[in-house]
Amino acid sequence: MRQENIRNFCIIAHIDHGKSTFADRLLELTKTVEMRKMKEQLLDQMDLERERGITIKLQPVQMHYTYQRPMTNDQRHREKQAGQESSVVSRESSDSEFTLNLIDTPGHVDFHYEVSRSLAAVEGAILLVDATKGVQAQTLANLYLAVEQGLTIIPVVNKIDLPNAETEKTKKEIVHILGCKEEDILLASGKTGLGVEKVLERVIELVPPPGGDEEKPLRALIFDSVYNTYKGVVAYVKVVDGSVKRDDALHMLGTEKEGMTVEVGLFKPGLVPTDILRAGDIGYIATGLKEVAHCRVGDTVTWRVGEREKIVVERLPGYKEIKPAVYASLYPVEGDDYTLMRDSLDKLKLNDAAFTFEPESNQALGRGFRCGFLGLLHLEIIQARLEREFNLTPTITTPSVVYELELHGDTKRIPLYSPADLPDMASIEKIYEPYVALSIVTPSQYLGNVMSLTQSIRAEYKNTEYIDAERAVLSFEAPLMDVIVNFHDELKSASSGYASMNYEPIEYRESDVVKLEILVAGERIDAFARMIPRQAAYAEGKRVVEKLKEVIPKQNFAVAIQAAIGGKVIARETISAYRKDVTGYLYGGDFSRKKKLLEKQKRGKKKMRDIGKVTIPSQAFLAVLKK
């Protein structure tokens, strides 16, 4: 098919604004999937996605649509001159079949980088806004990403069929943020299909065909990759220049890895092999590589040097290493499950290049793995997949971000992945903490509540922008650690569920933080160690020991729970021992008999305390996080 008849586009929106349902209607309209095979959220392949109602993995699909182009004034003039017969010919000649490549993207902030790479693979974007909720935080974030990529934006108000839809109000919000005319905004319902065909036609009319030259050397952008047992790593690509077919020798410019094309094909929406992918096409390349890490999102695929004539290929812009934002350790509840957990994490990593893990050990919890995630939702997804797919319920330590340390006499910063690895404070010159730009969209009536909440997380206020008289966008700069733990839930509580948030990393800043350690029965528990702002350390230490007193079960001896900074204990609680009436069977006699038994019990408890070990339940580690 000619490039003029190809349209590459994606759907961007806030979570739960109807992206996947709208995509279902597009598949029905273009007859891409037979009606008997249709089901809700067809492009969401995982059960977890259907249950949570969110898109976790992006999903491309190719559709075909016959569109009758509007006749030009010249055509109408010729029609009048030539009569009815010419009229039929000109109408038929204006019909064209278009290839439409759609990418259904995730909307959550944790998958920000993958969304940006998906936008780099297309020329247009449908901006979907829920008529009942209006513009929200990720609506703005994804819109700004699309504008940065220079995409053609097609604004659509979705869910207009609902009785509480505020269509006119939502249109005014879109006009404010996009600067378009009100008549340019389309109205649709992903549930009923109303207005969907008009949106598709607007895509054909406004989105430009992909550029690129088929005669140039191969350059293809990887926007996702998965692992297949038989074909190796399957790269989802947009071919920018050149072409690729089976048995072509490949080279990854970013990772410097090489492979051989096992198969090329298209998404319909399953993987369907084809003979060749040309410039402008979106499809997949089975590379034969054995690790997803060798075929990273954002990398450029070209021919292997030496297989073709000597050429210099320029890398496509935007490639960078995906760096986890949050680290947490996973430990099997039973030590015998260590090997099973390692194999399970290996399998998860094959289909999730952003997930990282490495072995570590802990005195209290045994052997486990330190894992890197893009955010707390990413952590929840991995945890849920371990439980569902591998029947593993791991113990999860307190999530932490990556700090940077500057030691005395050395200006080079070193990363700190876990508080347990913090060196002696006397050797540290400065500690740097990651900060994010935080955006909160909230109804005006909750402004006071939201402002009060942000004061609890060391947020620095920047400005307020009003979308309309009833909705405002608040901008802050705040530490990443304060934002990822509890803040989203607290924001929903403070705004009765109406506010939404988005954040983007900006820089590292010097912070006055200390390591808060927890001792249980005199033993330091590394899994509870956290980096805490100095001014909040005493309050947080008191809260943690009180919480642990509730969740750690009683032992046969008294258990001291202490919070400490360095060598100084700042808070303490004691779990009292079980009391057994050792004198209950005595029925009289001298008091010295009772005293002898009580002294024996006291010596036994002392000995038990010296050699005993407190078992900490797995739920205690997550309970500490919940305020």
Notable traits:
Elongation Factor Tu (Ef-tu), domain 3; Rossmann fold; eight-stranded antiparallel sheet; single chain; 27% helix; 5 domains; six-stranded mixed sheet; Alpha-Beta Plaits
Plain-language structure description:
The protein has 627 residues and is an alpha+beta fold. It has five domains: 204 residues, P-loop containing nucleotide triphosphate hydrolases (Rossmann fold, 3-Layer(aba) Sandwich); 85 residues, Elongation Factor Tu (Ef-tu), domain 3; 71 residues, Alpha-Beta Plaits (2-Layer Sandwich); 108 residues, Alpha-Beta Plaits; 110 residues, 2-Layer Sandwich (Alpha-Beta Plaits), CATH 3.30.70.2570. Helices cover 27% and strands 32% of the residues. The protein is built from 16 helices and 31 strands. The strands form six sheets. The protein has an eight-stranded antiparallel beta sheet with strand order 11-10-16-7-8-15-12-13. It has a six-stranded mixed beta sheet with strand order 2-3-1-4-5-6, sandwiched between helices. Strands 21, 22, 23, 24, 25 and 26 form a six-stranded antiparallel beta sheet that branches. Helix 3 runs antiparallel to helix 4 and helix 9 packs across helix 10. The longest helix has 21 residues. The chain is globular and about 130 Å long. About 2% of the residues have low confidence.
